[in-house]
Specification:
The structure is a single chain. The protein is built from 26 helices and 21 strands. Among the domains are: about 100 residues, Beta Barrel (OB fold (Dihydrolipoamide Acetyltransferase, E2P)), CATH 2.40.50; about 150 residues, 3-Layer(aba) Sandwich (Rossmann fold); about 160 residues, P-loop containing nucleotide triphosphate hydrolases (Rossmann fold), CATH 3.40.50.300. It is α/β, with parallel strands linked by helices. Strands 11-12-10-13-14-9-15 form a seven-stranded parallel beta sheet, sandwiched between helices. Strands 16-21-20-17-19-18 form a six-stranded parallel beta sheet, sandwiched between helices. A five-stranded mixed barrel has the order 2-3-4-6-5. It is globular. The structure holds adenosine-5'-diphosphate (ADP) and magnesium ion. Magnesium ion (MG) binds next to helix 12. InterPro entries: ATP-dep_DNA_helicase_RecG, DEAD/DEAH_box_helicase_dom, Helicase_ATP-bd, Helicase_C-like, NA-bd_OB-fold, P-loop_NTPase, RecG/Mfd, RecG_dom3_C. Belongs to the helicase family. RecG subfamily. It catalyses: Couples ATP hydrolysis with the unwinding of duplex DNA by translocating in the 3'-5' direction; ATP + H2O = ADP + phosphate + H(+).
Amino acid sequence: MNPNFLQTPIPYLKGVGPNRADVLRTELGIETYRDLLHLFPNRYLDRTSYYKINQLQPSGADVQIVGKIVHIKTVEQKRGKRLVATFVDETGQMELVWFRSHKWIRENLKLNEPYVVFGRIARYGSNFSMAHPEMELLSEHQKGLKIAMQPIYPSTEKLSAKGITNRVLGKMMQQLFLESKGQFPESLSKNILEELKLVSKSEALFNIHFPKNQELLAKSQFRLKFEELFFVQLQLISKKLLRKLKIKGLPFNQVGEYFNTFFQHHLPFQLTNAQKKVIKEIRTDLGSNAQMNRLLQGDVGSGKTIVALMCMLLAMDNGFQACLMAPTEILANQHYNGLKELLGNMGVKMALLTGSTKKSERTLLHNQLENGNLNILVGTHAVLEDKVQFKNLGLAIIDEQHRFGVAQRSKLWHKNELPPHILVMTATPIPRTLAMSLYGDLDISVIDELPPGRKPIKTVHRFDSNRLKVFQFIKDEIKKGRQVYMVYPLIQESEALDFKDLMDGYESISRDFPMPEYQISIVHGKMKPADKDYEMERFVKGETQIMVATTVIEVGVNVPNASVMIIESAERFGLSQLHQLRGRVGRGAEQSFCILMTGSKLSEEAKTRLQTMVQTNDGFEIAEVDLKLRGPGDLMGTQQSGLLHLKIADIVKDNQILKTARYHALQLLKEDPRLEKEENLPILYAYSKMMQNKEIWGYIS
Ligand code: ADP
Ligand code: MG
């Protein structure tokens, strides 16, 4: 086969042509033969099984039904005509619908003859319907039945509207195999193939598209999943090795005055063992000659801030500046104030830079950064602006990293000639599985222990109908001197409505908790930063007992006296968000509570989320459930979901394969770091092809 065969532009494939090629490109991202070959079926349909109409579910699944058309009519609509056929079997009736090709269908379909129809089920009102079904006379169908396992390819509305049905995709695939004679270059080494008893690449590709039987299909899936994860791991691991070899780190050789003074005189509590362990790990990194790129995971309240501070002091001890970035202004403020308090009279020069820093202050600050008069800069995204130049930035710490995109990380990277050490802190516990594939190029530290004396937060679920009781409970807690958060959802898509909910809520709370006995703060995204801070401050100081807010308070805010978290419309929040919110309480010595308020109608998934919250406080457990419910893309936030466009493997379900792949990738790079051995040439070749085609996504670019 011509080595560039797979690079052939897709319009060259017989049966495709420019129009279809256009749709394939925009809808499925298919530009070349290779792309088409790697369009893997989502699932397979057992075309030996048939549904009855009364068994249908509005599941969006593709099904196969035997029945007859008893009636056909044209329905006029505003946006054109539609052809509707009544299709019946002995258990009921449904509709078949066509939006085009009416003439052909009217002329060719036979009334009252048994057909097998196949397509996606939808429900309109009380009727099930199937749009543009594949149809075959039962008599023909019985003669055929060549492929029992029919692949179902990803589909979009536009694809089917343009006539690129599953059947058409299958035909294209056939054509591709015809032109290539089904021969594709092997991309794994003999060793790996033999050790894992994998089927060859050509066999795997054939059976993934045209499975001969279940067993071969399973073997092919395994092989392709392994391969996909293997190359991802190969990239991640070699990147990490390269970084350690090549990227010289700024030397932090000594522990000096700042660190020691703080440790001996300013540390307000004993560090937990987990904190000590992590600081040690980081110190080892900083002392090596390589650049540190470390992810620090620790559940909310586990005490990441003090770790960050001590690392920044280390930077200063070695003559470097440090910066700490937070995703919101409130949080940056809080960090700034918290650090100031911790540092006391140590003489550390620290400044705050956020969107609302005044221009005059800013200019001064820029100067001080450049001439080295500032030791620590705390701030928001504003820190990343080009104008902000450090004299010698040695350590950059990013708090709550899931709010920052990868691009932003790489921006920090370019601030200096030599890259600063980077510490990324996250309170969204990332399941190990995911951490391995997402951050395989980072080192990971975990604070897996909460500071002593914390009482686990009690979490309950209450329906809106029990609001009075909940309010009474709040009043009792306030009487004991506690403070309360009430959080409302603010989801971008329904912002206006949500905002109204928040304001309505605020009003009714103001009625139920009247002044002067009760003081209420409110914080939301539409407020001016100064007003936000003012309200926040009042709550922090204990001047107000209730904080009504949107999720702006989700991240990091620390008010130890607040012991009750009420989450309104809790069913609308994702699990990790609920967990984050809950983490705002339980920070003091008192028993804390989290009350999840919901309406009475709950989806199954929402029920699972609520149950999980009630059952456990363990962030890692919650993250695992979340990952299962939502998939990795959502978990990490849309910014990063692009990193997870795996074609066939699933990080959650294929956890075992991932481990195997990682093991073999490590093994390979240990034995043959440059992939020079002859037996590894197929891997080298495939790998460089993938890099060329940018098939493997990059991390820090
Ligand atoms: P997070 O990991 O969520 O950022 P913080 O750093 O804000 O957590 O710490 C939460 C609270 O726990 C703070 O009030 C902090 O002062 C306190 N804290 C941190 N470490 C310890 C410790 N070792 N012992 C007691 N309290 C601690
Ligand atoms: Mg924090």
